[in-house]
Amino acid sequence: MTAPRPYNLVAELTYRCPLRCVYCSNPLEYAQVREQLDGAAWSVVMEEAAALGVVHVGLTGGEPTLHPDLLEIVTAAANADLYPHLVTAGTTLDREGLEALARAGLRSVQLSIQSARADTARRVAGVDVATQKARFAADVRALDLPLTVNVVLHRDNLDEVPELVGLADQFGAKRLELANTQYHGWALRNRDALLPTRAALDAAASTVERMRAAYPQLEILFVLPDYLSDRPKPCMGGWGQRIVVVAPDGKVLPCHGAAELPGLEFWRVPERALGDCWRKAPGMNAYRGDAWMQPPCRTCPERQRDFAGCRCQAFALTGDAAATDPACSLAPAHGRIVEARDAAEADPPALVYRGGLS
User: Fold this and answer.
1) Which positions ≥6 away from 189 have C-beta within 8 Å?
2) Helix, strand, or coil here: 255?
3) 72-112 pLDDT, tens per residue?
4) Three-state SS at 340
5) Nearest C-alpha neighbor of 10 from the set 244, 295, 348, 315
6) Virtual CA dihedral for 307, 309, 312, 318, nearest 10 degrees?
7) CB–CB of 330/338 below 8 Å?
8) Gap between the Cα atoms of 120 and 281, Å rounded
């Protein structure tokens, strides 16, 4: 089938990160995946991405500022007429380094924060990071770079919405992403400790509406968890539809977690051109279109909107990547989502931390 045009490149420069966040979306076996693409190889990726039609590149990880060739990579993205956007925890890059990236063509920054409360942030990240994040936000503001603040919401911080909005405004952010945890990677391992109750989610959603009225200068995005919505999300906008992910080892993927699905063949750059990896790799084409879908998705009128949900979630919960995402209320395995909701009403278990790798 004909591959659509990708608009966004997610460049996972490294899985290394000094934080140990309990909801990290990196693969559980991330320590075995070391970065194999240097600045020169990433520069070729940027050129080939532009030729494919990509306009935006998210420089992410792990912690992308730990890649030794980050300045060269940003320069290459800017030279390819892409929009380079840095996604960072804000703990490893000083003012001088950020200024150098801005001169090289960095266009915007996303700063992740774990909580507006120092003790909760420390518990979630596994390390004390609040002071460093505030300093980094001040550096971004001083350089007049557009700032997005991203917060992963869960049971421990869902009641902080007013504080989080106030903190984002204090940081000078233009956009605040309140993204309820999506249960992949380490988040799935910690699901019973992180998943909030329906009542807590509804209360937070109501608070968000009030905060939008109180802070009209701040764009506030509230991403609902599909575990509590009964409708599946089109993972990454649909498998191999609009977003191309390049992992630290050069593997080209439709989403962050696809490499862990068994039986799928994905190709790598620079062994093959990015365009070939996107258009022709068997794994990339495995779940494009709807011919692969099982009932009830095959005849569902929503199949062109939700693409049967997330393939990684379907595999994690059912063992079959082609199954209907259990987040859908019509899925045969939807009971597993209901069981998780019921568990959220109980006392949470202890958190399991991502191992440090810096």
Assistant:
1) 28, 352
2) coil
3) 999 999 999 999 999 999 999 999 999 999 999 999 999 99
4) helix
5) 244
6) -120
7) no
8) 43
Three-state DSSP at 283 gives helix
Q: Which residues pair with 223 in a beta bridge?
A: 179
Residues 6+ apart with CB under 8 A from 206: none
Rounded Cα–Cα distance for residues 201 and 159 (Å): 9
Give the ranges where 19-69 is alpha helix by DSSP (H).
Answer: 39-52
In the 8-state DSSP scheme, what is residue 10?
Answer: E
* Rounded CA separation 339/347 (Å): 14
d(CA 339, CA 344): 9
* CA pair distance 242, 264, nearest whole angstrom: 19
Q: What pLDDT score does 357 carry?
A: 45
Tell me, letter by letter, the H, E, C secondary structure of 81-142: CCEEEEEECCCCCCHHHHHHHHHHCCCEEEEEECCCCHHHHHHHHCCCCHHHHHHHHHHHHH
Tell me the average pLDDT across 227-241.
Answer: 89
Please give the structure tokens belonging to residue 165. 């909005």
SS (H, E, C) 136-176: HHHHHHHCCCCEEEEEEECCCCHHHHHHHHHHHHHHCCCEE
Residues 240 and 254: their CA atoms lie apart, in Å, by 5
Interatomic CA distance for residues 285 and 264, integer angstroms:
10
* DSSP 8-state secondary structure symbol assigned to residue 281: -
Residue range 192-209, pLDDT digits in tens: 999 999 999 999 999 999
- Where does residue 136 rank: exposed (0-12), middle (13-18), buried (19+ CB within 10 A)? buried
Query: Which pTM does this prediction carry?
Result: 0.94
Q: Whole-angstrom Cα distance, residue 250 to residue 333?
A: 34
Please check whether residue 128 is in contact with residue 118, taking contact to mean a CB–CB distance below 8 angstroms. Answer: yes
**What's the rounded mean pLDDT across residues 320-330?**
96
For residue 146, cis peptide bond before it (omega within 30 degrees of 0): no
